[in-house]
Each structure stands twice: as structure tokens, then as C-alpha cells.
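It is worth pausing here to work through a concrete case rather than discussing structure prediction in the abstract. The textbook approach is simple: state the sequence, then state the predicted structure, then interpret. We follow exactly that order.
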Amino acid sequence: MAALSGLASALESYRGRDRLIRTLGYCCQLVGGVLVERGPALADVGARLLAVSSQLSGCRTTLRLFDDVAMFLYTKQYGLGAEEEDILVRCVSVLGNLADQLYYPCEHIAWAADARILHVDSARWWALSTAFWGLSLLLGIARSLWVVLKLRQQLRSPSATVTSQRSRSTRGAVEARIQSELLTLLSNLADLANAVHWLPPGFLWAGRFPPWLVGLLGTISSLLSVFQAARASGGAGKAAS
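Step two, the predicted structure:
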């Protein structure tokens, strides 16, 4: 019952629903892609699962039509990252926010073109939106690598070797943040591999992944995101108690 209650609570939020839809969609693509390659006997089931995955992906695209305002407010609130002490983190975060902000209208135009609302080439706008997504992921990867490097340097500093209770608490917090950044790094790497795959053919490995590999990478990224969200929620609950 506790697990069911937690699931219901997660589904009440937009982000919680999006994580579930994303995870389910990529899982369907993973299993469907594997079944299609197993042979004719299972190909029909695999094709149906791939169709479910496509519909769930379309659902997320439609829901993202309403994300622009929230993204704009977040970008405005962050501004030039004056609260960030590290200049590299600040610059990478500002550029990442800009890439995210530009991603949404490009995807909306591509969606409208596919729906025949706008008479433009949807493929060009899908490629542009994917490029902005890939750029955002690349910047996120650079940020995580830099943060992990700085945090590990902090752990090696002479002050970190003090064995006081406060020092141990601080060290534990730093190690927890390193773990969180590494999980974010792995998630972004998996998504970046898929982002490159969805770019126009001819760029690196664009268009070369079979459906099951796209599903596998997406499932890994989605499960890491779900795990981090659950851990953050559990940590918040413990802090409140």
C-alpha cells in the first residue's frame, strides 16, 4: 500500500507523470525492439509495443507545449547565475538555460508542422530542437564533470581530513552530492547518445541505432531520473520529520 500511495502521489504532479510516461515509453521501445528482431513469431507483439512507445512519446511532446512559461520563469530567476561561486558553472548553466529555452519553440513548430497547422518543413525544426537538446545535455555533462572534479578536490583538502563530527557530516554531504552529479552525468550521457541518433544522418552515429538500443539508453536515463527524484523526496521527508 505504501508503494501504491507513493505512486499515486507522484502521479499527481506534472513531473511525476512525465517521468512515468517517459520510463514506460522507453521500456516499451526496448522490449518491442528486442521482440521485432527475435523473428516473425514475436514481431507483431513487438510492433504493437513500439506503437505504444510512439504514442507515449507524442503525449509527452503535446504536454511540453505548456512548458515554455515555467522554463522562462526559471531562466529569468537564475539570470546570470550571480549566486554561483564558480565562474565555469555559472557560464555553462546560463548557456544550458538558453539552449533549453530555444528548444521548446523549435519543438512546438515541428509539432505544429506534423499536425498540418503550420506549412513548414517539420524535419528541419525537429533537427533544430534535437540539436538544442543535445547542446543542453553536453553543457550539463561538462557542468557535472567540473563539479565532481571540484568536490573531489575539496575532499582531498587538509580541512577535510579533520575527524570532528561536523567534518564527517560535511564530508558525507559532499560525497552525496558527488554521487548525485555522477548519476546526472550518466543520465545525460545516455540521453546525448540518443540525441545524436535523432540528428540528420551523416553526423556521427545519427540514425544508426536500432529501436531496442534507443529504448535501452532511454530506460537507463529514465530510471536514473526516477531514482534521483525518489531519493530527493525521501531526503526531504526525513528532513521534515
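Step three, interpretation. The chain has a mean pLDDT of 90. The helical segments are 2-11, 14-38, 40-63, 68-78, 87-114, 122-156, 165-197, 211-240.
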